[in-house]
Amino acid sequence: MTKARDLANIISGGFTADDIPNLDTAKITSGTLDAARIDNNSLTNVTQLPFSAGTDWQSTIVTGTTLSAEAGKGYWIDTTSNACTVTLPASASVGDFIEFADYARTWGTNAVTLNPNSLNFQGISSSLNYNISGQSVRIVYSGATQGWIPANDEEVDFKFAPYNVDFLVIAGGASGGYNSNAGRNGGGGAGGYRASYNNETSGGNSSSESSLSFSIGTVYTITVGAGGASQTTTSPNGKGNDGSNSSISGSDITTITSVGGGAGGGASDLTGNSGGSGGGSGDAPPANSGGSGTANQGFNGGSSSGTGPGYNGGGGGGASQAGGNGSSSVAGVGGNGLASTITGSSVTRAGGGGSGYGRLDNNVGASGGSGGGGNGAVLSSGADATDGTINTGSGGGAGDPPGSGAGGSGVVILRFPTSKYSGTTTGSPTVTTDGTDTILTFNASGSYTA
């Protein structure tokens, strides 16, 4: 006959062979204890050892958007009306456990997010989502290295919660046009400019874009566009070279692409090319139009005068301003670039290239736009065209011998919380911090694994 306290000891796991007469202790060790081995007691609910009856299931159904969970407890979570974020304990001991169950089979519609609260969850400190209807999960704390680990197989499938990433994506700038008469060429257009950080303006005087959502473990490919090469000949037409696109791509995001700058018009193909920002027009009667900028990325290139004695071309478009128009006496200046504080300080990029100046009685060439635009050549003084500044996506200046200014290469910059930084990159980006954020500046193509 069992003693009065025997069943309580069984439930707690603290009984011994002395508590129950004729009990085969080998059965306890092997985990095959059943009711037949105990006199006058029904243990229909006890089928196997070791067993646990220690979870303190809460009677109140969780329906709110947040929950602070405690070790040793079980929670029924109903996400019929909204998702729920569960904050795990800030400290834990090895063996601590918590259980959660999908009360209304709605986690597939509104997920449950577990916030590890500075501890790890399977070795990572990021939040994670449980998003399969009918899921249940029991997590057990294993120690500081791996932290909480799921310890059951009831649809245990989770995804670490994505995190927001701000970006600045600038394409390569274009080179200016080329002619033996500097004034007849257009400046190169700046590369397209797309931005999401701190509600800052994108190119073409457009609104700031939405940040991206990066998923843990996903590889995001970064492409940094090259600037258009210097034009050194009038064959076939002296037009400059377009810049190349820059982009961010990944399997779970819509690719962010900024369009390369449009080439400046040249000796015989006078019209500036369209691009992120348009190239300025070369000049000869009649007047010609500059290339068009891309919506939400940049401005148009300037038009040419079509009249002497200067026959001056237009400046390349910039991220914040159209290229200046040429006139009979003034060469078109490059359009100004845009400033961003995504790296922690204000930096202006993506200026358009200036047109050249052809009048023999004037030694002033058209300047490039702010943010790195190259200056146009000055025929009378022999001043050469200058390149757009590298990694600003700025356009090059219009040129005569020895050539036009090359476009500046683009840049891609990412900014996100330092707590989310994986440290896994290719392409050797520059890594800096500002406050609680990490900034990756890609001056060349590479990748980031979230």
Helix content: under 10%
Order of helices and strands: HHEEEEEEEEEEEEEEEEEEEEEEE
The overall strand count is 23
Largest sheet: 6 strands, antiparallel
Summarize model confidence as the mean pLDDT. Answer: 86
Query: End-to-end span in angstroms?
Result: 62 Å
Structural class: mainly beta
How many helices? The count is: 2
Gyration radius, to the nearest Å? 34 Å
Unreliable residue stretches: 1-13, 19-52
Overview features:
450 residues; mainly beta; Jelly Rolls; 6-stranded antiparallel β-sheet; 23 strands
Can you offer a commentary on this structure?
It is elongated and about 95 Å long. The protein starts with 5 loop residues before the first helix and ends with a strand. It is built from 2 helices and 23 strands. The longest helix has 7 residues. The protein folds into 3 domains: 52 residues, no CATH class; 106 residues, Sandwich (Jelly Rolls); 288 residues, no CATH class. The strands form 5 sheets. Strands 11, 12, 13, 19, 21 and 22 form a 6-stranded antiparallel sheet that branches. The protein has a 5-stranded mixed sheet with strand order 1-3-5-8-9, with no helix packed on it. By secondary structure, the chain is an all-beta fold.
